[in-house]
Amino acid sequence: MTDIPWLTLAIALPALGALGVALTPVERAEQAKRAAFAVSVAVLALLGVMAARFDTSAAGLQFEEVHPWIPRFGVSYAVGVDGIALLLILMSAALVPLVILAAWRENDDAPDRGKGYFALILALEAMIVGVFAATDVFLFYVFFEAMLIPVYFMIGRYGRGEQRRRAAITFLLYSLAGGLLMLVAVIGVYVYGGTFLWSDLVSGGALAELDPTVLRWLFLGFFIAFAIKAPMWPLHSWLPTAAGSSRPGTAVLLVGVLDKVGTYGMLRYCLELFPSAAAWFVWPAVALSLVSIVYGAILAIGQSDMLRLIAFTSVSHFGFITLGIFAMTTQGHSGAALYMVNHGFATGALFLIVGFLIARRDSSLIADYQGVQKAAPVLAGTFLVAGLAGLSLPGLAPFVSEFLVFIGAYMFNPVPAVIAAVGVVLAALYILWMYQRTMTGPLPERLSGLADLDRRELGAIAPLVALIILFGVYPQPMLDAVEPSVQRTMEQLDATDPAPAVGGTGPTAGGQEGASE
Amino acid sequence: MISATQAAPGAALAAPVITDSPPAIDYWLLAPMLVVFAAGVLAVLAEAFVPRPRRRPVQLLLALGGVLAAFVLTLAQAFTLPEGEAGTTLALGAVAVDRPALFLQGTILVLAFISLLLIAERHGGEDAFAAQAAAVPGSEEEREHVLAGSEHTEVYPLVLFAVLGMLLFPAANDFLTLFVALEVMSLPLYLLCGIARRRRLFSQEAAVKYFLLGAFSSAFFLFGIALVYGYAGSVNFARVDEAVQAGGAEIFQGGNGEPLLLLGIGLVAVGLLFKVGAVPFHNWKPDVYQGAPTPITALMASCTLVAAFGALLRVFFTAFGGSVESWRPMLWVVAILTMVVAAIVAVTQRDIKRLLAYSSVVHAGFVLTAVVAADSAGLAGAMFYLAAYGFTTIGAFAVVTLVRTHENGAEAGDLEQWAGLGRTSPVLAGALSLFLLAFAGIPLTSGFIGKFAVFEAALAAGAAPLVVVGVLSSAVTAFFYVRIIVLMYFSEPAEKGGPRVVPAGLLTGSVISIGVAATFLLGVYPTPVLDHLIPAPGGGTDAEVAATADGFTR
Asked: What is the mean pLDDT of chain B?
C-alpha cells in the first residue's frame, strides 16, 4: 500500500528513544525527560498521520510489512493493523505522552532522578505498538512476553510502598505462567497449522480441519494467558496488588493499555484462530465474565485504597469486554472493541487524578481525603467527569460501548445481559461513594493548603477529558474504523461454525444468526 | 546396509584380521583433536623446561593458540564437508566427522577459548587457583607459597587434555572410543575441581565427590558397554545399530537377547546422564559447581555439558536408534524428573553457584525433551540450545568471579550478599540480569529461541505432556532467577555497604561482553546459526524415517 514502514517506525522510534534516554548521564535527567516527552509526541504524530491514511472501508490488514526473520521456524517479522488494532495503538500512543507529563516529578528522588522510569515507559510503548501490530503469532508472543520486563521494573524499582517488590514478582510470575502455557499453544499452532502468519492461519484450512479436542486445548492455552492478562476472575488477583503498588502512571499503562492485550488477544487469536473451539467455550467464558463483572464491582465497593478500587472496577469492566466478545454478535464485538479504547481513556484519567492527589499528600487512601473540591475545584471536577465516565454516564464515551455490549449480550441471551446490568448499578455505587468520601464534605484542617491542578497537570488531564466527551457525543469515527474488522470476525466465526453439537450451545447459534444478518 | 544385516554380525565377531599394512588414517580430519593434543603435550614440556617467570605467558599462548588453531581447522572441515553427505568415519570407524560433530566441536572450542580467558584472569595478581595445591590448607607451607606468589600453570595443560576429551566425546563412533574420551575428559576435571585458591577444603571435598561418583558412573557405563557388546557382537555404533535392527547378534536369532540390550542401554544411559547431570544422577552438580574454582565451573557448565549431550545424542540416535520405543519412556521419566525436581530444589538454594548448578540441571532436562523427540528437529533444537546456553552460562559465572564479600575477599556465594548490586555496579548487574532472563527464556534472548526449538521438536514428536511440564518448570525457574534480579535492584545493600566488586579486567570483561553479545544476538537473529551451522531437519516426524536424515553419519 505504501512504501513507508509506518508501523516499524512506530516501534523503532520509541525503542531508540528509550535507549537514548537510558544512556543520558544523570546530570542531564531533565533534558532526557524532555526528550522522552518529545519522542512520545512524535510517535503519536507519526501514528496520527498513518491513521489519516487508513482506509476504513477495507476489511483486511493495512500497512502490512512481512520480512522473514527465522525461516527455520517459519517465523516472520510481520506487522499490520486492522481497525481495532489501529484504535488500540492510537489510544496507547495518546496515553503515553500524558503519562509522561503527569509523571514528571514522580521519581525525582530516585538515584537516577526518574530518567530510567521514562526510558522504561518508552521501551514499553515500543512493545505495545508491536504487540498490537504483530500479525505473526510468534512475533506477537515475543512482544507479549518481553513487555513484562519493563513493567516489572516500573513496579518493582519505581513503584510505591513496601509491597512493591512482592507486587512486581506476583505480576511477573502470574504473567509468565500464563505466557508459558501460551507458548505451548503457540508451538502447537505452528506444528499443526504449519505457519505463524496470522492471515494464513485464518484463511487457510490447516487449523480448522484439526481434531476438535486439539483445537480446544490450543484455545485454552491462549485463553488462560489472556484471561490472566485481562484479567478475568479467578485469575485477577495480581492486578489490584500490582496497581496498588504502582506509580499512577504505571497503573495507567498497566490497566489502561497492557491489560487490553488480553482482551484484544481473545478477539484476535482465540476467536479467529479457533472459531469452533471458541463456540464450544462460549458459556464458560460468559459465566466467567459475569462473575468478573459482579465480583469486581462488589470488591471495588469495599476498597479503602483508590488505586486498588480503580483496579477492581477494571476487573468489572473487563468482564463487560469479554462478555461482549463471547456474545459473538456484531454489536457485542463493536461494543467490546470500543470499550477497550474508552476504558483506556476513562481509567487512565481516574488513575492520573489519583496520582495528582498522591503527589500532594503522598497517600492513595480514601480516608486521607475529604472535601477536596473546596480546595481544588478543578481537580475535583475532572475527577467527577472521569468517575462518571467510569460508570458509563450517557454522553460520555464508555456509555456507547457499554450500551453496545448490552445489546449484543441481550441478542445472544437475555439472562447474561440482565445479570451484567447489576454491574452497572454497582458501578454507580463505587464511583459516587468514592467521590463523596474524598471530594465532598467539609475541608479538614490538614488538607487546607491543597493546591489545585497546575498547568502541567492540566495539560495531562484535559486531553483525556476532552476525548471522553468527544467520543461520548460522536463515536461514529471509531465505529467506522471497527466495523469492517468486526464483520470479518463474524464471517470467520460463521464460516467455520459447526452445527450445534452440545445442548448448551443452542442459544449461541441463534444469537449468531441474528448477528450475521 | 540391508545386505550387511546378515553379514555384519559374523564379520564383526571375526574382526581381528592380521594384515601387514597399517590402517589408513585421515590425519587432516583428525587435525583439530591432534592440534589440541599436541598443544597439551607441549604445555607439559613447557612446564618442565620453561623457567618459572616465563611459564604463564608460554602456557597461555599454547592453550589459546591450540584451541584457536583447532577451531580454525574445524571451520575449514565444516566448509569442505561435501554438501548433501552426512559425513564420514575414520580410524577404522572409531571417530565420526559429520555436521553435528563439527558443530558441537566448534561450539566446545569457542566456549573453551572463552573459559580459558576466564581461567587466565588474575585479580590483584592472584588467579583462581591455589598457590600450591599440595600444601595442607592453612599450613605454614601454604602461606609461604602464597607470599612467594607461586602459581599452578599446570592448569593449562590439564584444561587442554580435558578439551581433547570433550572434542572426542561427541565424535566417538564406537563405545570404546567413547569410554576413552569420557575418561580423558573427566580425569583432568577431577583434578581442576580441587585446586581452588580460597575455601580449599571445600574445593577438595568437591573434587573427591566428583571423582568417586564419576568413577562409579564410569563403571556402570563400562558394564553397559560390555552388555551391549554381548548383545551386538561389536562396539561400533553402526554395527550395534544393525544388530538392534536385526534383533541381536547371530547367537540371539530368536530375539531372546532383548534383556541384554535393555540392560545395556540402561547402564550406558546412567553413565551419560551422569555427565549431563540429569535427575537422579545430578547430586554431584551443586557440590562440584560450588566447590570448584569458578572459571573451572564455567568450563564444566558449558563445554562438558555440550560434549556430554553430544555423546548422548549420538549414542541414542545412531547406536540405539532402532530401539527408540524402548528407551523413549525411560528418557520421558528422566526428563520430567529432571525438570521438576531440580526446579523445585533450586527454589530453596541460597548460594549463587549452587543455584546456577541446579539451573544447569533444569536446562539439561529441557534439552532432554528434544532428545525424546528422537528426530532431526530434536537434534537441531538440542544443538542450538546447548550453544546458546553455553555462552550465557559462562557469562553468568564470569560475573560470579567478580562479586566478593569484602575487599580482597572470597567470592560472595550467599545471595544475601548480592543485595543492592544494581545500585553499586549497574552494568555488571545489568549483564547478569540479561543472563538470568535468558535462562528464564524471556523473548529476545537466546534462551527463548533455544527453548522454543526444543519444545517445538518435542511437541511435533507428540510429547505434549512433556512440553507442558517443561513450561511449568520454566515458570518455577523464573521465580528464582527473578529473585536474584529483585535482590540486585530492589533491595537495599546490607549493613556493611553491600557487595564489593572487583573491577573486571580485560579478560573477564571480554568474557562477559561476549556472553552478552551472544545471548542477545542469538535471541534476536538466530537465523545464521540455525540455517548454516545446524543440519536442516529431514522430512517427517517418524523416528524411523528421520533417524537416517538427522545429519549423523553411520
From this structure: 86
In a domain, B354, yes or no: yes
Is pLDDT of B433 > 70?
A: yes
Query: Distance, in angstroms, between B528 CA and closest chain A CA?
Result: 9
Does a structural domain hold residue A352? yes
**How close, in Å, is residue B100 to chain A by CA atoms?**
17
What pLDDT does residue B290 have? 92
Please report the pLDDT score of residue A1 as a whole number: 47
Structural domain count of chain B: 1
Asked if residue B2 has pLDDT above 80, the reply is no
Torsion-angle region of residue A161: left (phi > 0), alpha (psi -120 to 50) or beta? left
Give the end-to-end CA distance of chain A in Å, rounded to a whole number: 31
Domain membership of residue B502 as a residue range: 4-12+24-546
Diameter of chain A by CA atoms?
A: 70
Q: How far is B530 from chain A (nearest CA, A)?
A: 7
Tell me the longest C-alpha to C-alpha distance in chain B. Answer: 77
**Distances in whole angstroms, Cα of residue B116 to Cα of each of A11, B113, B199, B290, B508:** 40, 5, 22, 19, 10
Whole-number mean pLDDT of chain A? 84
Interchain contact B442–A (C-beta under 8 A): yes
pLDDT of residue A174: 87
How many domains is chain A partitioned into structurally?
1
- As given in the structure block, the three cell numbers for residue B229 are 557388546
Any domain includes A293: yes
Q: Determine whether the interchain pair A165/B482 forms a contact, defined as Cβ–Cβ distance below 8 Å.
A: no
- Report d(CA A43, CA A133) in Å as an integer: 14
Cβ-count burial A263-294 (b if 16+ within 10 Å, e if not) = bbbbbbbbbbbbbbbbbbbbbebbebbbbbbb
Contact call for residues A468 and A394 (beta carbons, < 8 A): no
Which DSSP state fits B323? G
Is 50 exceeded by the pLDDT of residue A496? no
Chain A CB contacts of B472 below 8 Å: 177, 180
Which of B456, B475, B482 lies closest to A73 in CB terms? B456
Average pLDDT, integer, range B275-284: 91
Distance from CA of A181 to the nearest CA of B (A): 7
Q: Per the domain annotation, does A418 fall within a domain?
A: yes
Show residues of chain A in contact with B491, CB under 8 Å: 165
Instruction: Indicate whether A51 pLDDT > 70.
Output: yes
Q: What pLDDT, on the 0 to 100 scale, is given for residue A495? A: 44
Residue whose C-alpha is closest to residue B428's, from B406, B405, B396? B396
pLDDT of residue A267: 87
What is the separation, in whole angstroms, between the first and last Cα of chain B? 10
Residue A205, pLDDT score: 66
- Which among A73, A149, A169 has CB closest to B442? A149
Q: CB–CB of A173 and B489 under 8 A? A: no
B551 domain residue, yes or no: no
Could you give the CA distance from residue B374 to residue A255 in angstroms, rounded to a whole number? Answer: 44
CB A418 within 8 A of CB A455: no
Domain assignment of residue A467, given as a range: 281-517
Contact between B448 and A145 using a beta-carbon 8 Å cutoff: yes
At B305-340, the pLDDT tens digits run 999 999 999 999 988 888 888 899 999 999 999 999
**B442 phi/psi in degrees, rounded to 5:** -75, 140
State yes or no: pLDDT of B100 exceeds 50.
yes
Contact list, A188 vs chain B (CB under 8 Å):
459, 464
Which secondary structure element, helix H or strand E, spans residue B114, and what is its range? Answer: helix B99-120
Contact B384, B450 (CB under 8 A): yes
Judging by beta carbons within 10 Å of its beta carbon (0-12, 13-18, 19+), is residue A455 exposed, middle or buried?
exposed
**Cβ contacts of A377 within 8 Å, gap of 6 or more:** A452
- With beta carbons under 8 A apart, name residues in chain B contacting A181: 468, 471
